Amino acid sequence: MIRALYYSIFIIIIFLSAASCSRKSLKQEDSNIVWTKLPIEATVEIARTTEERAQGLKFREYLRKDCGMYFIMEKENVQNFWMKDTRIPLNIAFINSENIIVSIKDMRPYDVGGTSSDQPAQYALEMERGWFKDNDITLGDKAILEGDKVLFYRPSSMGITEY
Fold it and tell me: Cβ(105)–Cβ(73) under 8 Å?
């Protein structure tokens, strides 16, 4: 009898776990914010090491549609990027450790003056200039790296979860 009870509880837990994984929204653990997945994604090269981050998109002639570079920094700090030897006009989204976009800035080709995040960031996403605006990606959205894709989420209005 007890074995059957444990088995039933196990089945219920498995069912609830599977149901929660099928949602299209993410719920932030610390609050009641419900995140809805947006219908856009970016394919990215990932710069993890100091050398990869320093190389960035230097000497590139163009970026393919919906492609960019995702930078992973060692610590969450105010970040500074420059465009030395970078020919493509870019936008950069600075992303904090909770995957929230905290700044989106324009960057000019060959500019060595530097572009800084407005707030501490742990990640940065460089895309062709205009990409964030054209795809309605804004401050406060989430940008989550999954494999070589960045998926975007927005807080749902009125806390409605989409399934």
Answer: no
- For residue 79, the domain's CATH number is 2.60.120.1140
DSSP 21: H
Is the pLDDT reported for residue 77 higher than 60?
Answer: yes
CB 125 within 8 A of CB 150: yes
Share of the chain above pLDDT 70, in %: 77
How far is the first Cα of the chain from the last one, in angstroms, to the nearest whole number?
Answer: 36
**Residue-wise pLDDT tens digits, 14-33:** 333 333 333 344 444 546 78
- 67-77/34-47 β-pairing: parallel
Residue ranges in the chain assigned as alpha helix (H): 2-21, 50-55, 131-134
Torsion of CA 72, 95, 56, 67, to 10 degrees: 110
Structural domain boundaries enclosing 77: 25-159
